[in-house]
Write a structure and sequence with these properties.
Helix content: 25-40%
Strand order of the largest sheet: 1-7-6-2-3
Bound molecules: N-acetyl-L-norvaline, phosphoric acid mono(formamide)ester
Largest sheet: 5 strands, parallel
CATH superfamily of the largest domain: Aspartate/ornithine carbamoyltransferase
CATH architecture of the largest domain: 3-Layer(aba) Sandwich
Number of domains: 2
Shape: globular
Distance between the termini: 11 Å
């Protein structure tokens, strides 16, 4: 594995989950494989979980870890080629990437969709520049169109909590005051479509996700109907994907907020969310605080998904 940006990079998914669960049993068993290797984490956007869990994963493997917040203390980076740099950005990403790469062995990148151009976002312009110009293994810590460390942690969590061989997993859109990327639902769909689950997506009309991620998933526009008999509810807000509304908030309808009303339709489903979550917009206090809420163990599994990915990058490149 040279890069980690989507589910395909893991190869056999069942084997990847098995490896992750083995790592979870003894996360310090591989503390020599990263010795004298340096992990650089580059953030263009805020983070709590990704920052801490990925740093912890690197440390579990014996790596040195460094973090750069591009927008807090570093030079502002120009990312377009051909621009006359007479504005507020003193450095170009095409110099910054090889310089950063010269100090490290593996690079993690967080760079959200900007919603300025669907083409720029969906071509994954930023992380692909890191892949092209760093010469180092690169992994996504949420790029413009995917968050594969999150989805891998989600799958590990479902594997741990499922009570039947093929659970019903429902991805539901939920309201939020700001336009959020499609990265989390895209990757969740990407993984669920490859996993042994009955996968349903529910959202208001206009919130259709990109077809390359939805693939054969069942779309149900009636949220209450979608929740019937569900074993896992995975809530997330996202902005519209389809033109001409790309990146726009089309609805703040709080009847979509996940509450006891919808959860009562499920098969005592577990509630999942990647966090951070806005209470009483995405989910009610009661549901997120209920015994069925597994958002904390889900977040804890971010350390395990990151460690599995970094371990594989170390093993196949060094
Ligand atoms: C981000 C998003 O929706 O992609 C990060 C989630 C892990 N969320 C927010 O910006 C609130
Ligand atoms: N779930 C997740 O990626 O959280 P952060 O944005 O806090 O890293």
């Amino acid at each position: 594995m040279k890069t980690y940006t989507n589910v395909k990079d893991l190869g056999n998914l069942q084997e990847a989950v098995k490896e992750a669960l083995e790592i979870k049993k003894n996360r310090y068993a591989y503390k020599h494989i990263g010795e004298n290797k340096t992990l650089l984490m580059v953030f263009f956007n805020s983070s709590l979980r990704t920052r801490l869990s990925t740093q912890k994963a690197g440390m579990n493997l014996g790596m040195n870890t460094m973090v750069l917040d591009v927008n807090a203390g570093a030079w502002k980076l120009e990312t377009e080629r051909g621009v006359v740099m007479d504005g507020d950005k003193p450095e170009h990403i095409l110099e910054a990437i090889p310089v950063m790469a010269s100090y490290c062995d593996i690079i993690g990148v967080r760079s959200f969709a900007r919603f300025e151009s669907k083409k720029f976002d969906y071509e994954e312009t930023i992380i692909n520049q890191f892949i092209q110009y760093s010469g180092k293994p690169v992994f996504s810590m949420e790029a413009a169109t995917g968050h594969p460390l999150q989805a891998f942690a989600d799958l590990i969590t479902i594997e741990e909590y499922k009570k039947i061989a093929r659970p019903k997993v429902v991805l539901t859109w939920a309201p939020h005051p700001r336009a959020l990327p499609q990265a989390v639902p895209n990757s969740f769909a990407d993984f669920m479509n490859e996993a042994d689950v009955d996968f349903v997506i529910t959202h208001p009309e206009g919130y259709e996700l990109a077809p390359q991620f939805v693939r054969g998933a069942h779309i149900e526009y009636d949220q209450m109907k979608a929740f019937e008999g569900a074993d896992f509810i995975y809530a997330k807000s996202w902005a519209a994907y389809e033109d001409p509304n790309y990146g726009k908030v089309l609805s703040t309808d709080r009847s979509w907020t996940v509450s006891d009303r919808q959860m009562a339709k499920t098969n005592k489903a577990y509630f999942m969310h990647c966090l951070p979550v806005r209470r009483n917009m995405i989910v009610t206090d009661d549901v997120i605080e209920s015994p069925q809420s597994i958002v904390i163990p889900e977040a804890a599994n971010r350390e395990i998904s990151a460690q599995t990915v970094i371990k594989r990058l170390l093993e196949s490149n060094y």
